[in-house]
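hey m, so remember when u said the tokens were messed up on ur end? i reran from scratch. heres the input so u can diff it against urs
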Amino acid sequence: MRRKSFLAITLASILAMTGCIGGDAIIGDKGNNDNQNANIVVVDDGKEDPETPDNQTPDTEVEDVAWKDIYSDYLKNGVTELIGDYDTNWRDEWSFGFIYLNDDDIPELVVSSGYEAAGNIILTIINGEVKYMNTARLAFYYEEKGNLLVNSEGHMGYYYDYVYSISDTGFKLECEGEYEDEYGPDGPTGVTKYTIDQKEVTKSEYYTEIDSYIPGEKRISWNKGCSYKAMLDYLEGNGPKDYKEAYKSIINRRASEAGIMFSLVEVTGRDPLLLVVDNDKSSLCAYEDGLVFEGPEGYFSDGQIILMYPSIGVLMNSTSYSDQDFYTTFYEIKDGSLVAQYAYEEVETDAKYEPVLGQDGKPVMEYKINGMKVSYEEYSKFIVKNDGIFFEEVVSANSRVTYMEYLTPSEMLDKLK
């Protein structure tokens, strides 16, 4: 395996894995240590849907325009009722993107606050009605069209893995995993209590159960969506007609910023991306059939590497502060969202976070794919699978790559005519 050794990048922290808990939109930080489970209220109320016979699946195959109308109406009315008083600026500050959770052709809509205390709201459509769940903090991962989503997060010694599916009445809690560090007068005791569905289990039993739902290589983490306006325009058919129209709007809006430059990046099987370089930071924009995504800005630092993969999107490589810990993140922009997969190679630590040493006296390495511990062989195959394709180096070590065409706003507008 070819090991990459680059410095940590700020954008990796901006795009930290984001989180979920089911229930009637209770906005707030549910990851504290006081009565942690009190706010779990699953939308699935156990009642039969009178319009759905027992031997039939829910009627989610509504016409294309119908599901867009349903989401549009909910964004303008239902979401306002949920969070309007809690955060009156949600239309400007929150982000919105699609994921495909169950196996129908109607996407689920993620409405994300972008900050841990408020979490996300995830919407789905069942029999023409919107059902939703709240997330405890931000981080969640899912299996695309596998009908499984895991809210995997925590806060101050209390952590959880809540597994959800979509039933014919809404979101259903399949498994409730929780673990909590024990503290003594002098701080952490090194003991952690693990429970599955409120039953105490060993650490091994805990991860065997949680990891059985979604294998590491199938886990997709959601990071960020598009703006409220971009999503509403798309749902109501008012979005840009092509990528040129979309990018012209972005360029005109930012043209007055000093030193700003633009570049088109060709991507296999889709319209080109727009790379925005604003002095010491950069971002990517994408157009998909009327939906416009504008990525978060990342700041350049010495040794920063951003790799562009024509077949999937963006890969960003970084290391930790140690020359032994390596973190590789594969990003993809699709459905108005930035999603990611992660590979970790790091020194294994004990309960007190001290390095575990092998018989040779050297630190023992631990390998993870999307948070799931795997063998070195599995880790290597995952890296090669994602990394073994042609890529173009876009930005490196505070310098612009010479073969990329960087244009001023007026030059890029002329190019897009």
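this time it looks ok to me. The chain has two domains: 15-224, 239-415. if urs says something different then somethings off w ur setup not the seq
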